[in-house]
Design goal:
- By secondary structure, the protein is α+β, with helices and mostly antiparallel strands.
- Helices cover about 15% and strands about 35% of the residues.
- Strands 1, 2, 3, 4, 5, 6 and 7 form a seven-stranded antiparallel sheet that branches. The protein has a five-stranded mixed β-barrel with strand order 11-12-13-15-14. The protein has a three-stranded antiparallel sheet with strand order 9-8-10, covered by helices on one side.
- The longest helix is centred in the first third of the chain and has 12 residues.
- The radius of gyration is 24 Å and the shape is globular.
């Protein structure tokens, strides 16, 4: 088995450096309506994205290269993807790596895009990892790099990484897993991804503080945490502590959780804090079917313990529950 896997890995490595797309062309020029839709969806009111001197939000870089629901016609040339990319995926499919999940992307911005710019792009299969085993299954990480241009000028680079894998077989059927839970076997709760941009937020949570970033240039509050202000672009910031008061702005009820550590059904709310920013978290203290838009909630912190150690998370308890009026 190991010999077969090594041979597959060696074959996959031969695709590194080969073109994944050649002379692709965006289906539409950079345009104001798409910029407007993007900003409305993101809630981004930066004045740089409107008016006669508008630029496109940098994070839209990939949007101008996408084929949409109809896709691109043809296989090569000005229409995009090459045969090498398809061959690589065919090899993985034949080896049983039939599932795929996007893992991360990286973007570099070299020049602002403006309405009427027409983008072209080339992509390369930058790397294929050694065989990796994850909780999802065993497979290979494939990284592609797309270079985006306007005319002869490179305006940005987009790296996209996926895991193409053979799904892991879970031990025991659903009944056995439920019985294990009843016998006191505590499933591991997934941990939040902590990076240099949000580490301060999670450090505050450990101290039972919900910290909100505040731009020191224009005073705008923001959440989730970002490396710069989305209102004025300023890089400097400090924090304020949230009062903990809020209302349910929107919510969903989860019936089929992806992790056994969760106990469905439960409500996940988009909470609008008294300070004006919004945060996603669980709504507790009332049955899931009693959660409503406009419900008053109050911040509290819950601690979870399992094999990975203690975990503290912010949740929001219905105010009516504290006052005896709901639940």
């Amino acid at each position: 088995m190991s010999t077969v896997v090594d041979e597959l890995g060696a074959r996959l490595k031969t695709y590194e450096g080969r073109a994944a797309a050649v002379a692709g062309k965006g289906k539409d020029p950079v345009n104001e309506p798409m910029i407007r839709h993007w900003c409305e969806a993101m809630g981004d009111t930066n004045p740089a994205y409107v008016g006669p001197d508008a630029v496109a939000p940098p994070t839209m870089l990939q949007a101008w290269t996408m084929g949409g629901l109809s896709g691109y016609t043809g296989r090569t040339g000005r229409t995009g993807r090459t045969g090498a990319y398809d061959e690589l995926f065919d090899l993985l499919d034949e080896a049983g790596c039939t599932s795929v999940v996007a893992t991360d992307c990286e973007q570099e911005y070299l020049r602002p895009l403006r309405p009427a710019d027409e983008v072209t792009f080339d992509a390369v299969i930058e790397s294929v990892s050694d065989r990796k085993t994850t909780k999802l299954g065993t497979g290979y990480f494939v990284t592609t790099r797309m270079d985006v241009r306007v005319g002869p000028y490179l305006v940005g680079t987009h790296r996209f990484r996926i895991l193409k894998y053979a799904p892991a077989h879970k031990k025991g059927n659903g009944k056995e897993r439920r019985e294990g839970k009843r016998e006191g076997v505590r499933a591991r709760r997934p941990r939040p991804v902590v990076n240099r941009d949000n580490a301060g937020f999670w450090e505050g949570v450990q101290r039972h503080q919900l910290l909100i970033q505040r731009c020191t240039d224009c005073g705008t509050l923001r959440h989730p945490w970002l490396p710069g202000c989305n209102a004025c672009g300023g890089p400097d910031w400090d924090t304020i502590e949230a009062s903990g008061e809020g209302t349910v702005y929107s919510y969903v009820v989860m019936h089929h959780p992806p992790f056994p550590a969760f106990d469905p059904p439960y409500a996940v709310g988009l909470i609008e804090l008294a300070e004006g920013v919004r945060i996603v978290s669980n709504v507790v203290g009332v049955p899931y079917d009693k959660v409503r838009i406009g419900l008053l909630v109050r911040l509290e912190f819950q601690r979870y313990d399992d094999e990975d150690g203690p975990l503290v998370l912010p949740v929001f308890r219905a105010q009516e529950d504290r006052e005896g009026g709901a639940g």
